[in-house]
Amino acid sequence: MRYQISGKQIDIGDALQVHVKQELGSIVEKYAERPTDAHVIFSKSASEFVCETIVHLSTGLTTQAKAHAHDIYAAFDQCCDKMEKQLRRYKRRLKDHHRDREEPVAQFGASSYILASESEGQDAEPDSLKPIIVAEMETKIPSLSVGEAVMQMELAGAPVLIFRNEGKDGLNVVYRRDDGNIGWIDP
Q1: What is the pLDDT averaged over residues 130-136?
Q2: Are residues 86 and 116 in the same domain?
Q3: Which of 32, 37, 61, 144 could form a Cys-Cys staple with 149, CB 3.0–4.6 A?
Q4: If you compute the radius of gyration of the chain from its CA atoms, what whole number of angstroms results?
Q5: pLDDT, tens only, 49-62
Q6: pLDDT exceeds cutoff 60 at 102
Q7: 3-class SS at 15?
């Protein structure tokens, strides 16, 4: 497994990198077959350290966790605990997903935009209906079944996931509803 361990505005020492590789490697090996790479990003927010971990699996799925603590090692350990809980919860499905699928998840390119938020009050009328684009990025849309899409959304901790439905070959959306259930939009 390839590791990319970095810090935003902080120095990451060799001891922390060795700790990350040992702990994360043992957790991912235990629950997922053939992980491809891991990105661990440390940053500082006020008096707390923030650790964000993203692990890409060979099946094309991605799992993600984030934690805060006053000690950098504690932040990483909490992040690992969250990742282990996610992987443990989905271990059977991850292994079943790998057996059913001959090829890794296909990904299609799409544009992703970040729009400027309105700085005015919520009651004020906008000057125009054209939003200001702050950033434009390339994003990937996976080709999944509905069950795989729900699992991917849960593993990534995302509130919504757009995917190409393998069964109907159209774009679909799954999202977490306010009542805690999962919604599925199939146009």
Answers
A1: 79
A2: no
A3: 144
A4: 19
A5: 999 999 887 777 78
A6: no
A7: helix
Q: SS3 for 92?
A: helix
Task: List the structure tokens of 80.
Answer: 């690992």
Closest alpha carbon to 139 in 157, 119, 121, 163? 163
95 and 143 in a single domain? The answer is: no
Cα–Cα distance for residue pair 162/62, rounded to 1 Å = 14
Domain boundary among 48, 65, 100: 100
How confident is the model over 140-166, as pLDDT tens digits? 888 888 888 888 888 888 889 898 888
For residues 162 and 139, the answer to whether their CB atoms sit within 8 Å is no
Select from 65, 67, 73 the least CA-distant residue to 20.
Answer: 73
Position 42 pLDDT exceeds 90? yes
- Only one residue has tokens 């971990």, namely 53
Instruction: Please indicate, yes or no, whether residues 26 and 60 belong to a single structural domain of this protein.
Output: yes
